[in-house]
Amino acid sequence: MPITSTDTVTAAVRDYFRLTQQELADWLGVSAAQAGHLDTGRRELAPSTSEALAPLLAQVQAAAAAATPGTLRLASAQPALALAPPASAPLEARLDDCQHRARRLRRQLVPLLAQAETAARWAAALPALHAALPPDPGPAAEPNPATNWPAWQTWHRHRWLDARPTQLPPDQSVRYHLLRLRAEALEAEAAGLAALLPPAG
Fold first, then answer.
1. Residue 7's domain is classified under what CATH number?
2. DSSP secondary-structure letter at 19?
3. Do 122 and 168 sit in the same domain of this protein?
4. What is the pLDDT of residues 26-72, one digit of tens each?
5. Which own/partner pairs from 191-200 qualify as long-range (CB within 8 Å, at least 24 positions apart)?
6. How many domains does the structure of the chain reveal?
7. Which among 36, 58, 80 is the end of a domain?
8. Does residue 120 sit in the same domain as residue 167?
9. With contact defined as beta carbons under 8 Å apart, do 27 and 157 qualify?
10. Is residue 115 domain-resident?
11. Same domain for 92 and 170?
12. What number of other Cβ atoms are within 10 A of residue 60's Cβ?
């Protein structure tokens, strides 16, 4: 994901990891309102905030540098049979139905794809993000924020990272695969139907 000159770095990080302002504010140790000001560029990053943001931003920049476009190809072959040209009307009606249903299924896939993509980003980023922090004292060793704020903030940030999703839950995963397979089947049928129809014009 390229970061343009009109993006703020906090907005770019939030967009990449799909964080709310409150979630990013928790990591940075600022209020949600302050995070909002950073998002819109109304306030500059303080040195401590910039330091806290740096490991997240590094992951975004590394992903942007490594991004490459992908391609998807679907090839099919028709058997050589002695068949008369099929009537167009039933094929066109079925083609419209397949395309409509496939589009509806693809729309239902969008939020699941977003969740899975975000989980993959966190799974890839977490080792480096944990390593960028001081050592983790462990979930049970919560320091007292009143007497040792830096240690508590380190503990809190490790816990914040631990709470990030690293995969789509099983129930959502099965829904994703069922929707995807149904959409792909309809799209394959639509491609076959379109190939049977005479060229437009």
1. 1.10.260.40
2. -
3. yes
4. 999 999 999 999 988 888 899 999 999 999 999 988 888 776 544 33
5. 191/74, 191/76, 192/76, 193/91, 193/94, 193/95, 193/98, 194/95, 195/76, 195/78, 196/86, 196/91, 197/88, 197/91, 197/92, 197/95, 198/85, 198/88
6. 2
7. 58
8. yes
9. yes
10. yes
11. yes
12. 21
With CA atoms as reference, report the closest residue to 197 among 61, 87, 35, 98. 87
Q: What was the pLDDT predicted at 1?
A: 38
Q: Tell which of 12, 43, 58 closes a domain.
A: 58
pLDDT at 82: 76
Asked whether the beta carbons of 21 and 35 are under 8 A apart, the reply is yes
> What pLDDT score does 80 carry?
62
Residue 50 forms part of a structural domain: yes
Domain that holds residue 1: 1-58
- Confirm whether 69 is domain-assigned: no
54 and 116: one domain? Answer: no
| 158 Cβ contact list (under 8 Å, min separation 6) | 130, 133, 136, 137
Which pLDDT score, from 0 to 100, does residue 168 have?
95
Same domain, 147 and 199: yes
In the structure, how many helices (H) and strands (E) does the chain have? 7, 0
Contact at 8 Å (CB) between 121 and 16?
A: yes
2-6, 18-22, 108-112 — most confident range:
108-112
Q: Tell me, what amino acid is at 189?
A: E
DSSP string, 64-112: HHH-----------------PPPPHHHHHHHHHHHHHHHHHHHHHHHHH
Neighbours of 121 (CB within 10 A): 20
